[in-house]
Amino acid sequence: MASVHESLYFNPMMTNGVVHANVFGIKDWVTPYKISVLALLYEMTASKITLPERRRLNKLILPLQQGPDLTLGQFLKTVEECCPQTAYAVKLRLHEMADGELKDMEYFFSTLPTPFTAFDTEAYKTSVVGLFMRHMLLAYNKLSFSQVYKLYKSLQHYYHSHYAKPMDGQVPALVADDSEMDLTSIEDTVGDRVDKEELDTPLHESELQSDNTPSRGPLSQKQAEYFLARQAYLLKNDENKALKPAALQEELNNMLKFNPDFAEAHYLNYLNSMRVQDIFLSAHSLLHYFDRLILSGNDGKSNGDEGYGRSLRYAALNLASLHCRFGHYQQADLALQEAIRIAQESNDHVCLQHCLSWLYTLEQMKGSDSTVLTEDSVKMAAHFCLPYLASLGIQSLVQQGATQGKTAHKLMDALKDTDILHWKHSLSELIEISLAQTTSIWRMYGKSTMSLQQAQLLLNMSSLEPVNFGVQQNNTEGFAVVLCHLAELHAEQGLYGVVSEIILHLKEQFPPHTQHAKLWMLCDLKIQFERHMNEGKYHLAEPLVTAIAALNQTEGLYRKAQVLKALNRNTEAYHILQQLQARCEKAKCTEMVIRVMLSTAELHWESSGFSTALPVLLQALALARQHHLQSLASETILHLAFTQLMLGVPEQALNVLHEAIEPILAHRAVMDKGRAMLLAARCQMAVAGFKPNRQGQAADLCLAASALDTLNEAAAYFSQLNCKERLRDVHYLQAQLHRSLGQILESNKSAMLFRLLDQELQSPAPPVSMRL
């Protein structure tokens, strides 16, 4: 089930994105890369371009202007993807200037359209292109002759470095040596409050800087802002389109080398470290972020002592959330208590509400009952008009209510009320969590159709977030949960080709190093395990138990007991099931307790203890009905019907089975449908008076014919899953039933199919009467 606190991180960077760098001098606008962009804009205004190409180039303008400087090769490749003709024209224009003389560059600037007179082109003064050209022309005209010469030499170096062969292990520099080119001063990257004397002091190298990282010079203020905003947005919404963790770390190290007090770079470093689960570097970067935020004085609306305290309490709160993420509950509790203490001293009700939300989340992670804390949090959040936290609390209560046996209509009513709140305040993250929770709840209750509908609703929902940078789908926990449910639902129907496509998409969307990758890893392993068990390939299922246990110990123990039971190691399986049941009862994991009871009953069958299995099954049925788990209740009724059949009351077994057959055929897996139909056929055969391995006709020919139809339907279900062991049982019963009815040809055909499967499986068939 989706975690309701997946996005509860206070992030001052997102609300106060002030970059701690100096207001850059106007001469910083004139660089070789910016001249290349200017050449592109000139060619766009001067040449004829088709409408689709012009649209693609227009989308490219802003990222090229605001993004970091690119090498000439990267720049030309980017333009060529949009319009090859324009890329070639830009290349010729740069060639004329770089291989010509200084007057060629002067001529290029003199021929640019004036933004104040170009009314009918993209270069109009109020357009993006016009503003950029005005800045470039103003900056160029203010350069001295020596600076113009240095710019020209730099342009030559920029152009020729693209065609020169770089030496092994070296990256071609974008600018000439600092002694020749000094248009972008390192001094400009220092904060506004740095005095003239402090500017003469060289910046120290950041301790996070790698020795192997090439220095490419400082970014301008707008470039740094654009880079950080873009990467933070992609990390939140589509991590695959962000830079790889190592590449992003390298860029941040380069940025921090020139400005170690860049607070927002430290915060992005913290987010990047969280991607690879690096607890040390993430805590290190988070503390550095708040240290720099406090020292810079740019920590929100408050200043002075109040602003200092505000940063401290939110630093402690973020540190608590970090430890929660890594499962360090004791450290998280200490940090949370510190945040609460500072917030109480400052009378900060908003921070206290965030602390209370994390407090009940921490109690849930520890396995304690946090219902009272959650209810208090919802009331206080509503009192202080904090809809985000109030909705999170209600979703948490719904999640707890689902595990405590609350009825579906009460939970859905609560979620409906929160959905109204979400749409009213455009809380898209909480809408996703709500839909993922609804999907999980319907799945838990055994309503696969409703679960599938909610999953499709989330996947096809248009996001309320402004979709920038080509992001089409969020990589949040809600999407991962829903996609895993879809994979399991398709696997239950035997559609393993579709399952492979969904798992492949999950692997691409959530790479193994990401936070939510464990969800699809566990889902994939469970699907493989069930498939091997259905096909009778226990030697392939056994190695998966260790991998499942590494991700979820409870699931691993349950799967281990299943494998041991299939291998007839019943004593070992029984001990594991008893241990697992005690653990799950303590943790109040009702679903797993019922599954363990069903497996225990099956072990009783192996020793012909059908009467001893009845109390266990009745207890499981009572639990399933108490918690409204229709899927598990139907499975339990199936076990009860089989037990009654073995105890010699087939009429009663058939009546009980009719109660469960409808929800099984409507919502259960193909394997369960086949097992139910096989059991129904056996009950019909017993009621008709058919006795296996005995000559003579059945007393009730109508019931016997109905049993044949039921067996054919069971065979169709088992064929979908390639379940040869079950098919062998079906063909055996078909051969016996056909023979008792005098249908020799059909009997011989079923016998032949049985013989072929028996030879293929090369394993002794267990008694049909001893297995459900």
Walkthrough of the structure:
The chain is mostly helical and 772 residues long. The chain contains 35 helices and no strands. It has helices at 12-15, 32-46, 51-66, 72-82, 84-98, 102-110, 128-141, 145-163, 196-199, 221-237, 245-258, 263-275, 279-296, 304-325, 329-346, 349-366, 371-383, 387-403, 408-425, 428-444, 448-459, 477-492, 496-509, 517-534, 538-551, 553-566, 570-587, 590-606, 610-626, 630-646, 650-667, 670-687, 701-720, 724-740, 744-761. The longest helix has 22 residues, at 304-325. The chain is elongated, with a radius of gyration of 34 Å.
List the helices and strands and how they pair.
Layout: H1 12-15, H2 32-46, H3 51-66, H4 72-82, H5 84-98, H6 102-110, H7 128-141, H8 145-163, H9 196-199, H10 221-237, H11 245-258, H12 263-275, H13 279-296, H14 304-325, H15 329-346, H16 349-366, H17 371-383, H18 387-403, H19 408-425, H20 428-444, H21 448-459, H22 477-492, H23 496-509, H24 517-534, H25 538-551, H26 553-566, H27 570-587, H28 590-606, H29 610-626, H30 630-646, H31 650-667, H32 670-687, H33 701-720, H34 724-740, H35 744-761
Helix pairs in contact: 2-3, 2-5, 2-7, 4-5, 5-8, 10-12, 11-12, 12-13, 13-14, 14-15, 14-16, 15-16, 16-17, 16-18, 17-18, 18-19, 18-20, 19-20, 20-21, 20-22, 21-22, 22-23, 22-24, 24-25, 25-26, 26-27, 26-28, 27-28, 28-29, 28-30, 29-30, 30-31, 30-32, 31-32, 32-33, 32-34, 33-34, 34-35
Pfam families: ANAPC5, Apc5_N
Region (Disordered): 198-220
Domain Anaphase-promoting complex subunit: 266-365, 604-662
